[in-house]
Write a structure and sequence with these properties.
The protein is of the alpha+beta class. It has 7 helices and 15 strands.
Length: 304
Amino acid sequence: MTSDSASPKGSQISFSMDDFTKALDQYDYKCEKGQVIRGKVIQHTDDGAFVDIGGKSAGFVPINEVDLQSRPNLAEILPLNEEKEFLVISEQNAEGQVKLSRRQLQLKEAWENVAEIAEMGHSAQMRVTRTNKGGVVGEVEGLQGFIPRSHLIEKEDLNSLVGQLLTATFLEVNPSTQKLVLSQRKAIAAARMDKLEAGQLVNGKVSRIQPYGVFVDFEGVSGLLHITQVSGSRVDDLNHLFKYNQDIKVMILSIDEYKNRIALSTKVLENYPGEMIEKFDEVMKTADARVEKAKETMEKEEQS
């Protein structure tokens, strides 16, 4: 037996507690800021909750990072012994502890959700919580949203909207600036557009006169009566034929839901080119009977 193999037994017992701690550190679970992890809630305190995330120290969720609610109920939102997903929001401290957040994880998911809703062109519900000079502020999908006064149906008594649930579509969704702007007016217009169809005769009022056409408001939406669709004869000046707030009957030619546009026509109601110019009142008076003939003509043109 060599001298190397005959070493004393005592020389083999050299693994101290420091070595043991270092060995544990080598295999300790490392968390990085921005990482999503799962953990089990193990303790509630007045300041937040401790979560077992598999490391040598439990993670901590500060009370203001528990939920999107301003005054969360820990027992309801983070029940003891229940596993949840958390976002790591700080690097490990000297004791190996990290700060966790449910709120920021929910915010991330909420922004992704509204972005998807906006991209699909769907509407959402916003609960109005307060008003300001520009419009109303509220909660939508857990986020703070804003509807400008110009995009509200009720534009005068904004205080009457506080507490109400408004249906609105998204105008701007910007997570980087946390800007969420919506429109109640467009949402209602979109809903009403779903009930309209080409060939339908509608009663409206002239809301604006431009060189290229007349805008007509009806059923809570607006459509364009282009100058070429007024009559079969040339119209030189629309102001000679129309005036602001004038009652008018028009037929819907087409609806572009994607661009939110409605094309209108009175030319299709004429019995001969120029009748709208010569006998405007007569055409309007008998428009309901004329529209059926107009639709038959359009159907024949489509089939030919």
